[in-house]
Write a structure and sequence with these properties.
Number of helices: 11
CATH superfamily of the largest domain: FAD/NAD(P)-binding domain
CATH class of the largest domain: Alpha Beta
Order of helices and strands: EEHEHEHHHEHEEEEHEEEHHEEEHEEH
CATH topology of the largest domain: FAD/NAD(P)-binding domain
Number of domains: 2
Largest sheet: 8 strands, mixed
Low-confidence stretches: 1-6, 67-76
Shape: globular
Radius of gyration: 23 Å
Helix content: 10-25%
Strand content: 15-25%
CATH architecture of the largest domain: 3-Layer(bba) Sandwich
Oligomer: single chain
Amino acid sequence: MPEIIRKSPVFDVVVIGSGAGGGTAVKVLTDHGIDVALLEAGPMLNPARDFREHVWPYQVDHRGAGAHSELYFGRQQWGFFAAPVGYWDIPDEPYTAAPGNQFRWFRSRILGGRTNHYGRISLRFADYDFQPEDGLSDPWPVTYAEMAPWYDKAEGLIGVTGTREGLRTAPDGNFLPPIEPRVHEVLIQKSCRKLGIPCIPSRMAMLTRSINGRAACHYCGQCGRGCITASAFSSSQAMIFPAMKTGKLTVIPGAMARELVTDGSGRVTAVSYVDKATRTERQIRCRAAVVAASACESARLLLNSRSLRFPNGLANGSSVVGKYLSDSVGYSLSGNVPALEGLPRHNSDGIDGMHVYVPWWLLGDRRKIFPRGYHIELGGGFRMPQIGSFHQACAALEGYGKRLKDGIREGYGAEVSFSGRGEMIPNRNSYCEIDPERVDAWGIPVLRFHFEWSENEINQVRHMHQTFQAIIETMGGKVNGPVPDPKTAGISVPGTIIHEAGTVRMGTDPARSALNSYCQAHEVKNLFVCDAAPFVSQPDKNVTLSIVAFAWRANEYLAEEMRKGNV
């Protein structure tokens, strides 16, 4: 029998997962004076120890190749200098793909989850994302008008750069001042202008002025390593650490959630988890539970929470838990631009990532052969050279020694890159389920993935390639790399964009959805799901800002329902 923590009072709320959704939950709930326990499957975060944005390659043995990999298993998957980001493959936590299917599942295992390292692109969903006009996917149970105030709150807390453009495809927000474009971005903007494509200041969760006690960005350009000044948003620094100071939050690291325990009335009364340090199972009691472990992990937890009352998994009377899994459609292309060769060397760090981006610009265009759309993320400039920066140089340049080095120096900073992030239409053939045979190191059944891109997504990627090529050639550049496979068009491997969503969808009909518009389970009134799992569709915008907005709305509602005695 699992050990039940009885010495402490029952927690008002247990939150499972500490990323964007879980971090928002604990911030909102503790601000209301609610006692919260936060379960995180990984260790506590110590920014001073775990972030390396100010370490130079020459300060580390072998320039960081393989150094200190024992600190975080799998760190070399992203490089020594990356923040403790998580892993595609965790030895103790396998997952499977059904025969003939591909899916790569990225998990973060540390306080703050993926928000410690993600790209911080922060885009509002548009009105037509919530209420599709083409009938190809279900409408959401909320509208943009209902969500706009919560986007305002989210942007005000995390800090998002941008400019007011008046574009329906890219709703304006509560913005901080934008970042000036760098040289390669100015040339990209000029090329886009000639092609009739908008290229506007990016919307990034990175501070251009100090807010909420967090310093303005000092433009070291190393945000992927974590941010010691908290200028780049992470839930750990902007939400969880402040919540801990209230005295209302108890963080339990190394806690691998196994199942949600319910009573005879069907209410969640406890969370069963494995203490990874001692390999013992424990239970923590609660009045309500917020599941925010990431879309697939949250679905896994609900599916594994079976009982006589919920034989199909908790809150799964509709059988939609795990279903309609989606990821952003991804495709990338790069090119060399002679106008950028041999430029005087200068500091072009800025923020880590794009200073400008391309929002979707063909809304309603009947000439295109795919529905929905995509936005374009841009790369280039004088990034800090480190291990792997020039790994393709020998294939692209002839010679060796001085001739090879001179060629690398000449081309340094002359490459530009474009990455499309597009909308996937949810389909019934893309889902995750419990593998009937495999379990993880703690005996918890693992997920098995099924995934299918449709011709809608393949045709979208073909359009991306044509667009990127046109921008590069209009800059006077030449595309790098071979022509994509005509069958797949070079579309991303499912899961690799790390924007998975839609496995515990919300809706108005309990027969076709698991949650209501407040992310509250139809069947279990004291259960809320607050990551991207509730999302009905996968718009062409990165999901994190919307996770924060929906989680804020859901937990304000939960706090009020608890005050009224309804939860």
